[in-house]
Amino acid sequence: MKLPRSVSGNDLANALGRIGYHVTRQTGSHIRLTHLDPPEHRVTVPNHNPIRVGTLSAILSEIAERRKISKDQLITLLFG
Questions:
Q1: Is residue 31 assigned to a domain?
Q2: What backbone phi and psi angles, to 5 degrees, belong to 51?
Q3: Residue 24 CB contacts under 8 Å (≥ 6 apart), including other chains
Q4: How far apart are CA 42 and CA 76, in angstroms?
Q5: Domain range for residue 40?
Q6: Which helix (H) or strand (E) holds 21?
Q7: Cis-peptide into 46, omega within 30 deg
Q8: Alpha carbon 9 to its chain's center
Q9: Which of 58, 72, 70, 63 is nearest to 19 (CA)?
C-alpha cells in the first residue's frame, strides 16, 4: 500500500494511539509516544505538517518490525 502524503505529526500520533501507543511527552516540535507491552517501545514523531515521506516511512518500518507485521499491514491498520 502506498504511504499517505499529507499526514501531520498529530494525525500520526492519533493513529498510533488506536494501536496502543500513548503520548509520553512533547518537547518543542517532537512528540514522544510509548507502547507499554513488554518490551516497552518508544518512538519519536516530528510534529510537522506534513511529515516528510522518508521520515514517515522510517517510523512505520520501525513500528511494523517491533509489532512483527508487514509495513503494508500497519499502513492499512492506521490509515484504512
A1: yes
A2: -75, 140
A3: 32, 33, 34, 42
A4: 21
A5: 9-79
A6: strand 21-27
A7: no
A8: 9
A9: 63
For residue range 37-57, list pLDDT tens digits in order. Answer: 888 999 999 999 999 999 999
What span, in angstroms and rounded, lies between the C-alpha atoms of 61 and 77? 13
- Residue 80 to residues 15, 25, 41, 75, Cα–Cα distance (Å): 10, 27, 23, 7
Residue 1, in any domain of the structure: no
What CATH number is given to the structural domain containing 73? 3.30.920.30
Helices (H), the chain: 9-17, 53-67, 71-79
As a whole-number percent, the residues of the chain with pLDDT over 90 amount to: 82
Q: How many domains is the chain partitioned into structurally? A: 1
Residues 6+ apart with CB under 8 A from 56: 3, 4, 7, 12
